[in-house]
Amino acid sequence: MTCRILTLQNEQEWPKAAQWLQGRSNPGDGVENAVRDILAAVRDKGDEALVDFTRRFDCPDFAPPLRVSEQEIARAAASVSVESREQISGAAANIRAFHEAQLEKSWFLTRPDGSILGQRVLPVDAVGLYVPGGQGGNTPLVSSLLMNAIPAQVAGVPRLAVCTPPRKDGSVNPHILAAAHLLDIDEVYRVGGAWSIAALAYGTQSLPPVDVIAGPGNIYVTTAKRLVQGTVGIDMIAGPSEVLVLADSSANVSWIAADMLSQAEHDPLASAICVTDDPRLAESLQQELDNQYVSLPRAQIAGRSLMDWGAIVVVPNLSVAVAVANRVAPEHLEICTRDPWAVLPHIRHAGAVFMGQHSPEAVGDYYAGPNHVLPTLGTARFSSALSVQTFCKKTSIVAASSAFLLQNAPAIAALARLEGLEAHARSVEARRHK
């Protein structure tokens, strides 16, 4: 494996140089028709379809019930080591503290004429959380549960329903159940895939529907979320993960290589890019990547990712490097320069920014506190990380005074008639005459 090196003179050269990346947003998986069939089956057959799909794809001998009992959740939590429980608890505390700072309050304004205007912020009634199984349940994605559940809890959502694929023996990995137990979540279902998204959206005999669905998944899960959006709210349509590292000559090449590989091992479609103004760093980094990846357990995935979608980009100065980063609008942006705080004001587009050489992306993925559910594929230009607001809705409040109505009725009626809505105009004018 050798990661490509590109040389640019200015940011305008980036779109042409980056044409190789276009395939990441359209990997050619023709799954939409299959997912539509899955959604229809669950909508029509409910639990029967969930059991059938689970037997076909996850657990051949699967038998109801779909819901994990509270006793099983408690037993699983007790079976996990004290050390693991403490690590999960520490991460949860950091995540909760960060998201509590995001809470918005309802507010009201009083006008001189006595009118009251405001905005009421309320949580949705129910949230569905998808937690991927992770290699047949052998690599439990505990962080996904923490990052999705805790903001919903901070928002005040009264009901959280977790769906996760069962292992071959029909059980759920105890670490996932331990995390649920720590968070006081007792509604966990042994069901995954696109069929679980259908169940959360439409409801079945065993699984009542929810209002918002959040959580990562494969292309089938992601497509299902896209297709049910509108019936329910969703967190976002996430694509393959990505990191961009801004580096100058002060950067530690070994650390940058490790950070790029931490992204590359996710998925063959993951992208890891370093943009630097130091040609010598670029050459050293290319060699360091080759040296490090071979010893990884997921070396094949990481190597394929870097070869297909990775790059080391050499630019004339940091200003051009920042401009390229803003064009990419990466999910994760690491600033590994002498003075990262001097660079930060110039960053316009990134899902999350990691400042300095002691802030690798993995710190944010698991433990720092900010959410790791982030916009991908350039959508950081217009969207944000998952947050408490994902699970809230805002209602406008209008309490107009009679003085406001009388003073403004002519203007309101005129605007209504301009739009051809006579009844609107008359509904205001009727109130001018007692």
TrEMBL record:
Domain of life: Bacteria
Enzyme Commission number(s) from the entry: 1.1.1.23
Note describing how the cofactor binds: Binds 1 zinc ion per subunit.
CDD domains linked: Histidinol_dh
Listed cofactors: Zn(2+)
Active site feature: 331-332
GO biological process: L-histidine biosynthetic process
One annotated GO molecular function: NAD binding
Pfam families, alphabetized: Histidinol_dh
Reactions performed catalytically: L-histidinol + 2 NAD(+) + H2O = L-histidine + 2 NADH + 3 H(+)
Broadest EC class assigned to this enzyme: oxidoreductase
Any one GO cellular component localisation term in the record: cytosol
Family the entry assigns: Belongs to the histidinol dehydrogenase family.
Listed HAMAP family: HisD (MF_01024)
PANTHER family from the UniProt entry: HISTIDINE BIOSYNTHESIS TRIFUNCTIONAL PROTEIN, HISTIDINOL DEHYDROGENASE HDH
The protein's name in its UniProt record: Histidinol dehydrogenase
Organism for this UniProt entry: Desulfovibrio fairfieldensis
